[in-house]
Design brief:
The complex is a heteropentamer, with 1 copy of chain A (222 residues), 1 copy of chain B (213 residues), 1 copy of chain C (250 residues) and 2 copies of chain D (263 residues).
Chain A lengths: L5 H4 L2 H35 L2 H16 L2 H11 L9 H27 L2 H9 L4 H31 L11 H12 L2 H29 L9
Chain C lengths: L2 H8 L1 E6 L2 E2 L3 E4 L2 E3 L1 H13 L2 E6 L2 H9 L5 E7 L2 H6 L1 E2 L4 E2 L2 E6 L15 E5 L3 H11 L6 E5 L2 H10 L4 E5 H10 L4 E8 L4 E6 L6 H16 L2 H10 L15
Parallel strand pairs in C: 1-5, 1-6, 10-11, 10-12
Antiparallel strand pairs in C: 2-3, 3-4, 6-14, 7-14, 8-14, 9-12, 9-13
Helix pairs in contact in C: 1-8, 2-8
Chain D lengths: L5 E10 L2 E11 L4 E5 L6 H8 L7 E6 L2 E3 L1 E3 L5 E3 L2 H8 L2 E4 L11 H11 L5 H14 L15 H13 L5 E5 L7 H16 L3 E5 L3 H7 L2 E6 L2 E6 L1 H6 L4 H18 L1
Parallel strand pairs in D: 3-10, 3-11, 8-9, 9-10
Antiparallel strand pairs in D: 1-2, 1-4, 4-5, 6-7, 11-12
The chains are: A mainly alpha (222), B mainly alpha (213), C alpha/beta (250), D alpha/beta (263).
The complex binds adenosine-5'-triphosphate (2 copies) and magnesium ion (2 copies).
One adenosine-5'-triphosphate (ATP) sits at the interface of chains E and D.
Chain lengths: 222, 213, 250, 263, 263
């Protein structure tokens, strides 16, 4: 089997820039997704029937169809309905909204897991709804939502690879271009695997760190 | 876009559905084993499970599939496409499901384990008869979620030569040059499949006996 | 082991390809058809073997070729210097020279030079990209080149109006224009240096006899006029191709 | 007659098909201790929760010191919701101690008690913790201020819950079985705290299975059965000469059980 | 003197810095009902859990009918863990009823009771369910065998928990506050079941705030305070002439509270 690492070394500026784009979209997109997802969960919890139903349908569509297809339709179909986005913003917005749908479900299950009585106790001592969300719901559900959130962060990282289809110059696009220019597919895919694996390990490590740091939010059931 | 094209998409989606379902079931069995290893507290079991999860969660599924499809023959095991696809998806979903289940096991109320200890069940019996059913109940929504993710991720098995739904849409777009229509149709089919999965999940969840308080 | 012997013994030759490359390989009404299918049937007859197709996305084709999942890759691919370093190409089966696809009725582009200063799409990391770049250098104002992961997306963007044209090999865009008459139109003539499509195989000694046999079969098919007939069938015209490409233009 | 601390007017509460409270009318007098007794499932907790607007009544109104809480209702039965801020203001006069304690598991005992002082009363961290500590001392838990609920015994959790409610100095206290997890001695201590509160003019409504407690501390006894108020009056009327058959029967099982050794 | 059913020797239990049990020495006589009383946080639950080896003691030993459970300890204080299988064998003699019942939510009442018969005693499904059913009949729940815990009332859940423990025919039963969350009527039912067991000569250790029960059914009363056994003796000694000042004080508050209306 041919394996010539020099093919990649010669192209390092392009690879570094691709990696930079991937990491940037991943981090910004994840943060935006978590924030939007949290707001969606709050809106569904406190916004009344109609908002809950509408957002529920939006979430079902976003989760029910592959990201590849969503981003393709929005980017290439958008101009027909007057929505002409550049690749980078389109990719960032796409990742954020797709991730938000998943995060909103994670947070919602977190909300539901907090015993009603704890919320009522907050109401009884006069905490406002915002204070209850911030000071009781969020900390209490932390340990429960942490593992699925880490999973989600990993999934979003891998979804950034899909953005090559709308010409975002992220790492998968860069490496597969190098691969097909020189027909060095094996080298390119190995480098890609190594890069994502390292990022996932770092994410998992940060997740464990957070679990340890936040372990005071772990409650032992009697 | 013609009816014929839509039919082709529907036919291709049969691969998507069957490969996903088989993989999710196999993956679940492996995940139970893995989470049991993770929670055993013995390095001998914990380390291999951690390495397994690290690899199959960390390396892109595309690369995993290529490795299974192209590397196993090098050591003399020639796997057909469909087997390679199922092995790849199963191992990948096992890694994610194991993490979910670990959270579920950690949430089994301690008192229920204590009451099982008091009537003399062995640790293994406690695991199988008390912890697994309760953890399953607790993590069931996450498992349905994972099923939906796998249904979508199954588009990657085209890399080992299976023309599933997404690949069929891409192939057809490559000859008819109607990508928007084809992708929208494929999206619709995914949506319906996943909606059915969520619906079935909800029904099963309501049938699972007794949620812990 | 000698691959040719193995293929003959088995009575089948496995050919890997991607089925999203019309008119060479594509799915029509659920059937895998195209020039490659017809041509390999002829090659199979010459070698006395049946053809078995393995279809993969392009990403998976070369790792699978190296893993021995099939004996040769159809494709085809533009024969370039760099690619020749790693793989062995068969004699050309079609011209790969580049031409422009524009939106039907676009009056602003009537000859290749009119793309000066316009946004033109092209496949990322393709031989066509290099050709377009070279052509652009010679124009008074440079072409605004947009690179796409695959040509499908560049056609989508042409339809959406983000770009004014797509530069791709003539056989491919001629087929696109025929499929979507009224949407797209080919700008003639092609431009740039001549380049050619070939099938791809491994360079190692094991595969040499097989590749030699395929080469011989293709030259025979070309010599007796079957190649020209097939080119007419799929492209509407035949090409004058050399017997081998030793020193590609790119 | 003065304005009642809590006026319950024609209250109906249904869960789906089941009606749990049937047209309950009640007036809780200010500065008195009222005890709600009755068999399991009779609707005691539900009534108390309606009084704190933790449960939306299906019909009828609740007024706290003359101000309507939750929903107003006109003579045609049209109900209108009161603004969240207004409800919060009225509810600030009420403190509640839950049957399940409902301590926040991510905060220490001190944190549980000082939380609202900081968040609602905008006290500085230092002041809030000082006042919270004083309250914990009052319930005998100064040594457990830094413990999380999971590290406290049942009775200790209950006392933290009481301290949390009292720290806000409410005018009215609602207790749902405040002594169910307390041993006799502590029950006595908690009672003393409650007596002091009563002396200071605090209004209290106590749901209790402890009929002894109701008898000695209650100034008003309310007997609930199947969601209806079957009896309401002074302890003397209840225990000396219960004229209600169902009430008599209910009290009998209690006398049966505990009396033998005390007599 | 016979071998005690449970011998607690020099038991110490600490959680981090806090010592919860201080050198507890106790002998529970076979065939007797022993009641563990004491103020909140005194260590009653912890002691009971140590007896069942649900909590690892820091020092000291527990023996069940003469066999050491959990850890052996030599004269130098070196502790050695006993094999899991041996512990299981010893523990098989003990049944426990938890304060929170801890029924398995995914099994019916019948399933909860028959599970260990099938899994531990290797009985056939039919035999196990027959025996489980007989046990449910004993606690008056034959009509609820197919119900899941979430479909049972508190008192019913409690009785299933008792049936589950009894089905294994343990020699010793441990109860942690078996009636704290029940109303007087349900409390009566549960206490009756326990009285029957006592009459059959079962060894029982009961943590209870129900001093009435302790007084009438208990043959040995153990008073725990701040993790120390302050008194251990017969009910007569406890209630008629308590000679321990702290115990007297503890009981006084109880008499104070409940007696006035009963007398
Ligand atoms: N969310 C609900 N849905 C349906 N029924 C309910 C709900 N909450 C309470 N109930 C029913 O309402 C009735 C009254 O319940 P409530 O908790 O007020 O009783 P209680 O008098 O406090 O009893 P206990 O002494 O056991 O605490 C019960 O029969 C109960 O089953
Ligand atoms: N995990 C823990 N960490 C620290 N302290 C603990 C822990 N568990 C219990 N304690 C402390 O141990 C002491 C004894 O607790 P235990 O539960 O045995 O009391 P108890 O006698 O059963 O009280 P109650 O009657 O209130 O149930 C308490 O002071 C409690 O705060
Ligand atoms: Mg209640
Ligand atoms: Mg206790």
């Amino acid at each position: 089997m041919t394996f010539d690492i020099n093919v990649l070394i010669g192209q390092w500026p392009a690879i570094v820039s691709g990696a930079g784009v991937t990491i940037m979209i991943w981090i910004l997109g994840t943060i935006a997704a978590a924030v939007i997802g949290f707001l969606m969960a709050v809106a569904r919890q406190y916004g009344g029937m109609l908002i809950d139903k509408v957002l529920g349908a939006v979430v079902a569509v976003l989760r029910g169809t592959p990201f590849l297809i969503q981003i393709f339709l929005v980017y290439y179909g958008g101009p027909f309905v007057g929505l002409d986005l550049d690749p980078l913003p389109a990719g960032l917005i796409g990742i954020s909204i797709y991730g938000a749908a998943y995060f909103s479900e994670i947070f919602r299950s977190g909300f539901l897991a907090v015993p009603r009585g704890h919320i009522e106790a907050g109401e009884c001592v006069g905490l406002t709804q915002g204070q209850i969300v911030r000071r009781i719901l969020l900390p209490e559900m932390t340990m429960l939502v942490l593992p699925p959130s880490v999973n989600m962060v990993v999934i979003l990282m891998k979804e950034t690879a899909v953005l090559s289809i709308i010409t975002v110059p992220e790492l998968t696009a860069t490496l597969s271009a190098i691969g097909s220019q020189q027909y060095a597919f094996v080298e390119a895919l190995s480098a890609l695997a190594l890069f994502y694996w390292v990022l996932v390990e770092v994410t998992g490590w940060l997740g464990n760190l957070a679990e340890t740091k936040l372990s005071r939010f772990r409650f032992f059931n009697a | 876009m013609s009816v014929k094209l839509f039919e082709l998409l529907l036919q291709a989606s049969i691969y998507t559905v069957t490969i996903s379902i088989v993989s999710i079931l196999i993956g679940f069995a492996i995940a139970i084993l893995l989470s049991g290893m993770l929670l055993s507290g013995r390095g001998l079991f914990v380390r291999p499970a951690q390495i397994f999860i690290s690899f199959f969660r960390g390396v892109p599924l595309l690369v995993q599939l290529l490795l299974i499809y192209n590397l196993l023959p090098v050591i003399g095991i020639n796997v057909p496409s469909i087997v390679a696809a199922i092995i790849g998806l199963s191992l990948c979903t096992a890694a994610y499901q194991a993490e979910n289940l670990r959270g579920g096991f950690a949430s089994v109320p301690r008192g229920l384990v204590e009451s099982a200890e008091m009537v003399g069940l062995t640790p293994r019996q406690i695991f199988r008869r008390v912890k697994v059913p309760i953890a399953l109940r607790l993590t069931f929504p996450a498992l349905v979620n994972e099923a939906i993710l796998i249904l979508k991720a199954s588009s990657l098995v085209s890399v080992v030569g299976i023309v599933e739904l997404t690949r069929m849409a891409q192939d057809l777009a490559g000859s008819t040059f109607l990508p928007l229509q084809l992708f929208a149709s494929a999206g619709l089919i995914y949506l319906v499949i996943n909606w059915l999965v969520a619906l079935a999940g909800g029904l099963i969840e309501n049938r699972l006996p007794g949620a812990p308080r | 082991a000698d691959t040719l012997a193995a293929v003959k013994a088995a009575g089948t030759m496995k050919v890997g390809t991607e089925t999203a490359f019309a008119p060479f390989d594509f799915i029509d009404a659920g059937e895998h058809v195209g020039l490659n299918v017809d041509l390999f049937n002829e090659i199979g007859k010459e070698l006395g073997v049946k053809i078995e197709w393995v279809t993969l996305p392009w990403d998976g084709v070369f790792p699978a070729l190296e893993a021995g999942k099939f004996d040769v890759v159809a494709g085809p691919a533009t024969i370039t210097k760099k690619r020749m370093e790693r793989y062995r190409f068969t004699p050309p089966l079609a011209e790969a020279t580049i031409a422009i696809l524009k939106k039907a009725g676009d009056q602003t582009i009537s000859k290749p030079e009119d793309i000066a200063g316009k946004k033109i799409g092209v496949g990322k990391a393709t031989a066509q990209l290099d050709q377009l770049k070279e052509f652009s250098e010679a124009l008074p104002t440079k072409v605004d080149i947009r690179e796409y992961p695959a040509f499908t997306e560049s056609y989508a963007d042409l339809a959406a109006g983000r770009i004014a044209g797509v530069a791709n090999s003539l056989p491919n865009i001629a087929f696109v224009a025929k499929q979507r008459e009224g949407t797209f139109e080919v700008v003639l003539p092609p431009f740039g240096k001549k380049s050619y499509f070939g099938f791809i195989g491994l360079k190692d000694a094991d595969h040499a006899p097989l590749m030699d046999a395929i080469d011989a079969a293709m030259l025979k098919i070309k010599a007796d006029g079957r190649m020209a007939t097939l080119q007419k069938k799929w492209f509407g015209a035949s090409f004058d191709t050399p017997d081998s490409v030793k020193d590609p233009a790119f | 007659m003065s304005v009642p601390a809590i006026a319950v007017r024609n209250l109906v509460k249904t869960f789906g098909e089941t009606t749990v409270l049937h047209n309950v009318d009640l007036a809780i007098e200010p500065g008195q201790v009222s005890c709600l007794i009755g068999p399991s499932g009779s609707g005691k907790s539900t009534l108390l929760r309606c009084m704190a607007f933790l449960e939306e009544a299906t019909r009828g109104t609740i007024s706290i010191n003359g101000e309507v809480l939750g929903f107003t209702e006109d003579s045609q039965g049209r109900r209108e919701r009161i603004s969240a801020a207004a409800n919060r203001a009225i509810r600030a006069q009420i403190g509640m101690v839950f049957q399940q304690f409902n301590l926040w598991p991510h905060m220490t005992a001190l944190g549980n008690v000082s939380e609202a002082l900081k968040a609602v009363h905008k006290m500085s961290r230092k002041d809030a913790e000082e006042r919270a500590m004083a309250q914990l001392v009052k319930v005998g838990l100064e040594g457990r201020a830094g413990h999380y609920p999971s590290q406290l015994s049942g009775g200790q959790q209950q006392r933290v819950a009481i301290a949390r409610a009292l720290a806000l100095k409410p005018k009215i206290m609602l207790f749902d079985e405040p002594t169910s997890s307390l041993d006799p001695e502590l029950t006595g201590e908690v009672l003393n705290v409650m007596r002091d509160l009563a002396a200071e003019g605090m209004t209290m409504v106590v749901v209790s299975h402890e009929i002894g407690f109701a008898a000695t501390v209650g100034q008003q006894i309310i007997f609930l059965d199947h969601g209806k108020v079957l009896f309401s009056g002074s302890p003397q009327e209840v225990f000396k000469k219960p004229r209600n058959l169902r009430l008599e029967q209910f009290l009998d099982t209690y006398l049966d059980r505990g009396a033998s050794m005390l007599l």
